[in-house]
């Protein structure tokens, strides 16, 4: 594994336009596929040496990329693989510290230096969420519209589109998607799947890159699978809206059909059993049949769709779905119930 560490001959990347941009920090260490784009530039260039970056610059890591960015206030940002960060704005003077960064995708560890005596406002955001920090260390995963946060030190104030803040403490995690208010933080208990996910995240954003990126690449799926269990717990506890959010986060984190189908089945159960929203429940099952017709969960989705049509007194659609079920799954686990309901419909 090759890590570039250069503390001299630092090159300054300035804006393509003549407008002055303040210096933000220096990439002091990097490894693998790392590239940058100066403000106003059209495309990325490979990073081959330590560089100083100004406001408006972009940093990007590829499938095996990793970098460490030292800000001018001695804060440290580390990007794991498959990440992209914009250095939008940074100001440090005798009275205040202000910074704004956008993580469009990937994994970031932010270790923000304390600044006694200064008014401090440093934020990391994307299209769906904003994290405000002061003298804090936290981890942020951005995958599609979903965002996951782990607290390591200090307090992070995280908000969605409505501006309502959720305070994240050390050894807690929270998450959100599509601009929703972040869920109530959850303690990261030792020897749990979420603790193992946090450990893998810390390894991917440590002082040196990991030996391989397998654990880092699997993080979204690991957290998504944990969300299925946690959302089920929330639903059993009567926290139905929170459960729906957590299942949606699982959907947005996961790419694999298995987790996505499980999340939709769980959302369907909450809508139908607890909230009486049969239309929303039906939509979840139909999406499984449309997107993953060969998945094992398609059998239950097809039965659920027929049962919901039955409950909505849509006899024709119910009969169609039940007959389809018997054709596709002649020895299926719901066969007895399907035959009973068809008998009622055919009277």
State the end-to-end CA separation: 72 Å
- Helix proportion range: 25-40%
Give the low-pLDDT segments. 1-20
CATH topology of the largest domain: Jelly Rolls
CATH class category of the largest domain: Mainly Beta
Order of helices and strands: EEEEEEEEEEEEEEEEEEEHHHHHHHH
Shape assignment: elongated
In percent, how much strand structure appears in the residues? 25-35%
3D structure, described in words:
- With 347 residues, the protein is α+β, with helices and mostly antiparallel strands.
- Helix content is 35%, strand content 31%.
- It has eight helices and 19 strands.
- A hairpin with an 8-residue loop joins strand 18 and strand 19.
- The relative contact order is 0.07.
Summarize the entry for a quick read.
By secondary structure, the protein is an alpha+beta fold.
Features:
Serine Threonine Protein Phosphatase 5, Tetratricopeptide repeat; disordered N terminus; 35% helix; single chain; 19-stranded mixed beta sheet; Jelly Rolls; 347 residues; alpha+beta
